Amino acid sequence: MRSTTGRERLLWSIGLLVVLLYALIPVVWIISLSLKETADIADGNFLPTGGVSFDNYTSLFESGEFLDPLRNSIIAAAVATFLSILLAAMAAYAISRLNFPGKTLILSAALALAIFPPISVVGSLFDLWREIGLFDTLIGLIIPYMTFALPLAIYTLSAFFREIPWELEQAAQVDGATPFQAFRKIIVPLAAPGVFTAAILVFIFAWNDFLFAITLTSTDASRTVPAALAFFTGSSQFADPTGSIAAAAVVVTIPIIIMVLIFQRRIVAGLTAGAVKG
Amino acid sequence: MAEIEFDDVTKRYPDGFEAVKHMDLAIPDGEFIILVGPSGCGKSTALRMVAGLEDISEGELKIGGNVVNEKAPKDRDIAMVFQNYALYPHMSVRDNMGFALKLAGTDKNEINRKVEEAANILDLTGHLDRKPANLSGGQRQRVAMGRAIVRDPSVFLMDEPLSNLDAKLRVQMRTEVSRIQNRLGTTTVYVTHDQTEAMTLGDRVAVMRAGLLQQVGPPSELYAEPDNLFVAGFIGSPAMNFMPAHVEGDRLRLPMLDVALRDEHRAALQAGGSRDLIAGIRPEDFEDAALVGEQARHGATFRTRIDVLEAMGSEYYAYFRNEGAAASSQQLEELAADAGAGDVPSAGEGGQVVARLGAESRAAEGEEIELWLDTDKVHLFDTAEGHRLGARERVAG
Question: Which of B15, B48, B84, B143 to mutate to test the interface with A (most CBs of A within 10 A)?
Fold first, then answer.
């Protein structure tokens, strides 16, 4: 018995280690790259043995070719997330609570949109945006981000809303709440984990997008970080920009990590436990 | 002050199904009325129409004299206890109970005072700052009650509030509910499928079946004078025994014996001649013939073999079989299906009869015994319609 559990634990540990290494080696690698001196970049060592340097980071924040894209990324992702969640919450609530004609049509249209490959619309979007003046603007990025994020958010949120017992809302109505008060004071707080889950997914999608960013922007006025990385020139005209790109990649990962850490505590399953006898 | 009146109320769903059909019922102020029936009989729908959670398709519903058909739940001055309690999981017990008052804009101190008063009545004082998830089933149930009484509404609506509790707690809370209703004197509509709750709690009981009110009256009346087969079979535990009966002249032929036809039955049958009926006899109207003293005069005895004997301590339940078939009628089959065969054993299984015998009885399984039957208590029902012979005419409901 004892030896079985010992062996099991060993196998589990090995398994976990493999998964961790698989997931983290690229991250460690890029951090290591970003800390190397420009001359050491190609030395073939995994760790910065030639001495740790923050030059890449300093030049990154001094050059200006990174700060503007960073600002664009934050604005585009934040606005797209906020608007998507606001719209998706209302749509998902209606879909999960009401019976109206065309409900299944809306859901299947949303699903169809979610599986639609962005690459197939990006060309015509480029022409269209240039025609109506949305090319190289932040709004021009936010709109496609919302289009592709909304189906995802609606699906996630309607699943969460469906799990909230309808009686809670009815109890609130009997208690004297208007339908909107019931939604705001009972449903929204209970759906908070769902809202945050959807928000993170949408934010990451918008933050990581490269395809729309590279196609629909042309200057630092609207270019986001993933697109800007492709235009990095390095600290001098002749230097390889690998170090700067690595540093920028590390920097853009940080907001995502912070977001997940903040919201992780809010994404607690079982918040509704005890509402009704299960 | 807050009487409730159903005036020809019908609930029809978009697919055409009628959950409640032409319901007429007047509930006077302060009454504790029980809506009882098997699942799907429309009792919850009726309650939810009072609450305003279901639209009324036809007819008028009045609370305190005002038609409320078009009023939102919040404007009806009602409080409801849900079957699954529906406590707000993100709020403490105190906030749960005070939620309605807070919405109404009541002063904070006043809310606290009322919540603590209610907590006192319900023995929840020590739990006010806990979340519902950390409470036991009984405590959650009391919080749900507390949320209703804090508001001092003009009507309480309770939708099977005890059905999620275990058996012992249910009996305890039953007394509690009764005590609270007596104390507050608020008009209360209570829905249950449990005939024991119906019998013990209410001032009046309304039995429903397939969207139709079957009979409304005090529990004792429903028990002693059921209007039809359904009410007779639904009220009482163990349920009434049903068996085929045959009238010939002034004799009534039951499967186990012949007895004289009672005058009231003869009057109801009008013309003599022979006729097939269904007889209903409650288990307690049998007795071990050896234990019957004085009252034996208006009874009759017969011999039968006991199949199964259940000792309850204070009494015995003796099961025996009638020779010949069980009472068969369209109505009875429907009843068995409606109530679940377990609730109406003699309608479901072939000819089995249960008799309640005193604890001193010497009856034994597999042996013959002489049983006594109180012939005054034999009910006769019309085979086709299921009406009880001699039931007084009531306003159609």
Answer: B84
